[in-house]
Design brief:
The chain has three helices and five strands, in the order αββββααβ. It is of the alpha+beta class. The protein starts with a helix and ends with a strand. This is FMN-binding domain-containing protein.
Length: 154
């Protein structure tokens, strides 16, 4: 009899985890950032001097995947730079996502341009935008990859 109770409890726990884990999406801020998967492409023109740390960045458009969370989740970030300043940004949510996580990513994507356009790439690190804390981790992961890719030899 005890065997059946233990089996039911284990099954209940497994079902609960299977339902809750995908819902984490952008809503959780577990502090982990994974960057094992990168898709990047760039279009560079002349290098420009960035504002604060003497790093020179190539002007152009950079596209990378920002990865975050334990699932992991990701967003594709396309960012335009001119003189080390962000002049445009497009955030594309992860297409194969549950409705809850996709909602967080879509709200983040809509609000991000107002928060980052006009900012120096050196000085920028986003926090919660549109209630999506995990999405910020993905965006910051993408920023780090873009900084590395856009940096030119001084």
């Amino acid at each position: 009899m005890k065997h059946h109770i233990l089996t039911r409890a284990a099954a209940g726990t497994a079902v609960s985890l299977a339902v809750i884990a995908p819902l984490a999406g952008c809503s959780s801020d577990d502090g982990s950032t994974q960057s094992s998967s990168t898709e990047s492409s760039s279009t560079e023109s002349s290098p420009s001097r960035a504002s604060t740390n003497d790093t020179t960045y190539g002007d152009g458009t950079y596209t990378v995947r920002g990865v975050y969370g334990g699932a992991p989740s990701y967003m594709t970030i396309t960012l335009a730079l001119n003189g080390g300043t962000i002049t445009d940004v497009v955030v594309e949510p992860m297409p194969e996502n549950n409705d809850t996580s996709r909602g967080y990513q879509e709200r983040f994507a809509a609000a991000a341009p107002d928060e980052v356009i006009g900012e120096s790439i050196d000085d920028l690190e986003v926090d919660i935008i549109a209630g999506a804390s995990g999405c910020a981790d993905g965006f910051n992961d993408a920023l780090a990859k873009i900084r590395e890719e856009a940096a030119t030899n001084n």
